[in-house]
From TrEMBL:
CDD domains: MPP_PhoD. The lineage of its organism: Bacteria, Pseudomonadati, Pseudomonadota, Alphaproteobacteria, Sphingomonadales. This is Alkaline phosphatase D family protein. It comes from the Bacteria. Residues 37-124 form the Phospholipase D N-terminal domain. Residues 135-509 form the PhoD-like phosphatase metallophosphatase domain. PANTHER family: ALKALINE PHOSPHATASE FAMILY PROTEIN (AFU_ORTHOLOGUE AFUA_5G03860), PHOSPHATASE, PUTATIVE (AFU_ORTHOLOGUE AFUA_6G08710)-RELATED.
Length: 539
């Protein structure tokens, strides 16, 4: 397919159902040929970028990639080639080098029959002095809960330099589970309809999600760096298994390898499990792996208190023993050492900010005791029991969420001390929780940095647990219960941006006005900033 493209069409093309990829159903996914899923780019450096597409045909065709300074490809500056192999679900990835730093480029793929992919836009990372750089940050996009309006809004912007996806790019569940059919938005169907377990399942789930025109537009218009969270594999995984993996679903290692392969096939990523990206002298972005490389098994409150006669005593014993164990890790020893050395190297090179883009909340977060009283009037026995246990956890000094860094306090202490010792200007980015949070991060009585945790693209958050509590009341109680928490919003969907300058970091949470109808309207925004060297959000 040949495209004549201008700036307006590049940003708007594919939005809101335009184009062949909007055709729903298994027939489209299983019978399509040629360039079936648009283009994407990722993992940029100062001189190279990875280009992605999918081309379905007989055999193993070699695709050519062209990078140009203009959308008409009158000034082609680099070329590359690579195969579209059936063993990788017909996806092709080509890393093209020889580019200039800090430049926007256009790119496309050309098939052996002369057909062209859609035209994409990408950029290299800057070198040397950088005055400003803006990240768009996303997580938790469940297709059946609603429209990807956050992707649609960002895809039209011209002030973003790089997209960061913190995971839960899709969800592995079968149709009818999260969301249930009564919550699912009509016309938002997933393939396969069963849970993703085998390689072909994961491939088809990616193919299903990537037909969304707004996700396609985001990939087409910006380079992305990405790392999985849990649902690209199975809910709440760790080194040896996952909450959503049962014995009758086969060998865990086989499923994990299948999920990892599908991710590497369908995403604009290469093979490293963890990596860093240098934004000139302005920032280093560190992207670790937090789920399957070194994570110890998560604790869960229902397991901890099962059969407990004295709830408070049981939780106090857990706090003093298992929860505090020094050997429990999120990253594993090798990755902890890599990150600590990375902080030191970044600071010693004169880089002004150290950005840790990872999946789960790092700030200390507690369940508000007044909320337990409110929930105690719920009609649900399950909800009342959950509130009773969480209230007891708060009284014991235990956190709200044991799947976050709160469940691994010794590992968090090691990470924050390494940042403190390196004198890093630390900004932590997190997804996973589906809600918006701003934390001051502290360790040993010292300010270490700040955390921006982002609301989901579509997945419901804390508000679905306590719908009877007004959002402002809920947020106020959460902030009051957690000294590090400076602000929270539990009522909206959307995405974040982080704009870095040499002396300040500016965070913005953007909330879409709906996910149940197509719209690029932003209902509200919340802005905060920190000054370099402060280690805390400004008052």
């Amino acid at each position: 397919m040949t495209i004549t493209i201008d700036r307006r069409l590049l940003l708007q093309g594919g939005l809101f159902g335009l184009g062949a990829l909007a055709t729903p159903g298994a027939a489209r996914l299983l019978t399509a040929s040629g360039f079936t899923h648009d283009v994407a780019s990722g993992e940029p450096t100062q001189s190279s970028v990875l280009l992605w597409t999918r081309y379905v045909s007989e055999g193993q065709p070699t695709l050519r990639a062209e990078i140009a300074e203009d959308a008409e490809f009158g000034r082609i500056v680099a070329r590359g080639e690579g195969p579209a192999r059936s063993a990788y679900d017909f996806t092709a990835k080509i890393t093209v080098g020889g580019l200039d730093p800090g430049r926007w480029y256009f790119y496309r793929f050309i098939a052996p029959d002369g057909s062209h992919s859609p035209t994409g836009r990408t950029r290299t990372l800057p070198e040397g002095g950088v005055d400003s750089f803006t990240l768009g940050v996303f997580s938790c996009s469940n297709l059946r809960f609603g429209w990807f309006n956050a992707y649609a809004h960002a895809a039209q912007r011209d002030d973003l330099d790089l997209i960061v996806h913190l995971g839960d790019y899709f969800y592995e569940y079968q149709a009818g589970r999260y969301p249930g059919e009564e919550q699912a938005l009509a016309g938002r169907e997933i393939m396969p309809s069963t849970e993703a377990i085998a390689l072909a399942d994961y491939w088809l789930r990616y193919a299903s999600y990537r037909t969304d025109p707004n996700l396609a537009a985001l990939h087409r218009n910006f380079p992305m760096i990405a790392r999985w969270d849990d649902h690209e594999i199975a809910n709440d995984p760790w080194m040896g298994g996952a909450e959503n993996h049962q014995a009758d679903e086969g060998d865990w290692e086989v499923r994990k390898r299948a999920a990892m392969q599908a991710y590497h096939d369908w995403m604009p990523v290469n093979d490293p499990m963890w990596a860093s990206y240098r934004i000139g002298d302005l920032a280093t972005i560190f992207m670790p792996e937090t789920r399957i490389v070194g994570r110890s098994r998560q604790y869960e409150y229902p397991e901890i208190v099962e059969g407990a006669g004295d709830l408070d005593a049981t939780l106090a014993a857990f706090r003093d023993d298992d929860w505090s164990a020094e050997d429990r890790t999120v990253l594993g020893v090798e990755q902890e050492q890599w990150l600590g050395q990375g902080f030191r190297d970044s600071v010693s090179s004169g880089t002004r900010w150290q950005i840790l883009a990872q999946q789960v909340i790092m700030g200390r977060n507690y369940f508000p005791l007044p909320l337990a009283e409110e929930i105690g009037r719920s009609d649900s026995d399950l909800v009342r029991e959950r509130a009773r246990v969480l209230a007891a956890a708060t009284r014991a000094g235990l956190p709200l969420n044991l799947d976050a860094w709160d469940g691994y306090p010794a590992a968090r202490t090691r990470l924050l001390r390494s940042a403190l010792e390196a004198e890093a200007n630390l900004v932590v980015l997190a997804g996973d929780s589906h809600n918006a949070w701003a934390f001051d991060l502290t360790q040993d009585g010292s300010a270490v940095g700040i955390e921006m945790a982002g609301q989901s693209v579509t997945s419901p958050g804390f508000e679905s647990f306590v719908p009877q509590v007004a959002p402002d009341t809920l947020a106020g109680q959460l902030v009051a219960a957690s000294p590090e928490l400076q602000w929270a919003d539990t009522s909206g969907r959307g995405y974040m941006t982080l704009t870095l300058t040499p002396e300040a970091a500016h965070g913005e949470w953007l909330f879409t006005d709906s996910i149940r109808s197509r719209s690029t309207a932003i209902a509200r925004r919340h802005r905060m900033e920190t000054v370099r060297g402060a280690g805390a959000w400004s008052a």
